[in-house]
Design a protein that fits this description.
7 helices; binds zinc ion; two-stranded antiparallel sheet; single chain; globular; TIM Barrel; alpha/beta; about 300 residues
């Protein structure tokens, strides 16, 4: 009997131990697995931004990152618009704008993969009357996808670009991934570019300029997409030929003028170039790292930002 009772006690003790263990494990799973709901704030009266009847962008702000969020950016825009130290122009006017008593400043956005984030930044700039330039990436998933040997465009892209250009007053530019197109997609880049520009311009998207995209493939195969342009100098890496596996490709090149581009964003001879793709002491560059008030009047500045970093 004793033995049995003892056995029972031990068993119920084991049960208790198991029960506590299960409770503890449940707590642990809850603690680790259940991420705290991300809080979204709506500081704007427009809680959403309408692109079409079917496409609506949530205009909420997440404050998960201390600097890279829309509220911090809003404060930066507020500072820029209230200051008389800056003459803010879109990139198409950058080269021909000079000033004796102001810093000439252009805000450049390479939209890359996140067009919703671009719309949210553009909305905030519009609020402060700031005009800037947004470069649409033709190899991004929102723009289209490769099907077989062809590239199928997503025609909804035009509504986003019209929102940026017509409703918010910004310039639209072409973010060039053309060497990637030739190398990775095996799509003839000259014909492709001609067609895409025709499509955009026929739809009243006024494209003046282009900037080059730093695709992941650029780092693997060592090329700049800027090398599509005859005007772009050899900046190291593979200027003429790229070797991919057993194939060697001659980079197709053409002139900016052929496509009625008036500028390439890397050839604007600015005095200062800041970009949130640069890292300083391991930290992503942001405007808290520079006092723009200390830049002397007459100087010319470009700030390049990637909207996805601010989302
Ligand atoms: Zn890019």
């Amino acid at each position: 009997m004793e033995g049995l009772r003892k056995d029972k006690v031990v068993k119920s003790g084991t049960f208790l131990l198991n029960g506590q263990l299960i409770l503890f494990l449940l707590f642990l799973v809850n603690f680790l697995g259940c991420k705290k709901e991300e809080e979204v704030f709506y500081p704007e009266s427009d809680r959403s931004i309408q692109i079409t009847d079917d496409i609506v962008i949530d205009n909420g702000v997440k404050l998960t990152k201390p600097i890279f969020n829309y509220s911090y950016y809003d404060n930066f825009l507020s500072y820029l618009s209230a200051s008389d130290h800056f003459l803010i122009v879109s990139l198409k006017d950058f080269k021909n704008t000079t000033s004796e008593d102001k810093v000439v400043l252009s805000l450049r956005y390479d939209i890359d993969e996140n067009i919703n984030a671009a719309v949210k930044l553009a909305y905030r700039e519009h609020k402060y009357g700031i005009k800037s330039t947004y470069f649409v990436l033709h190899t991004a998933t929102y723009y289209g996808q490769k099907i077989g040997p062809c590239f199928k465009r997503n025609d909804n892209i035009i509504f986003y670009l019209k929102k940026l250009q017509d409703d918010f007053g910004h310039e639209i530019g072409f973010h060039n991934d053309l060497v990637t197109l030739q190398l990775m997609y095996e799509i003839p880049p000259k014909e492709y570019l001609k067609n895409e520009l025709a499509y955009l311009r026929e739809n009243n998207i006024h494209i003046w300029g282009t900037t080059y995209h730093g695709s992941q493939y650029c780092y693997i195969y060592k090329y700049y997409n800027a090398y599509f342009w005859k005007e772009y100098p050899d900046n190291g890496w593979n200027y003429e030929y790229i070797t991919k596996g057993y194939k060697t490709l001659k980079i197709e090149k053409d002139s900016l003028k052929t496509y009625n581009f008036t500028y390439e964003g890397g050839l604007l001879n600015e005095d200062y170039f800041f970009a949130d793709c640069f890292f300083i002491d391991g930290k992503r560059w942001n405007m808290s790292m520079v006092n723009l008030d200390t830049i002397k009047p007459g100087k010319k500045v470009i700030i390049l930002l990637h909207p996805a970093n601010w989302d």
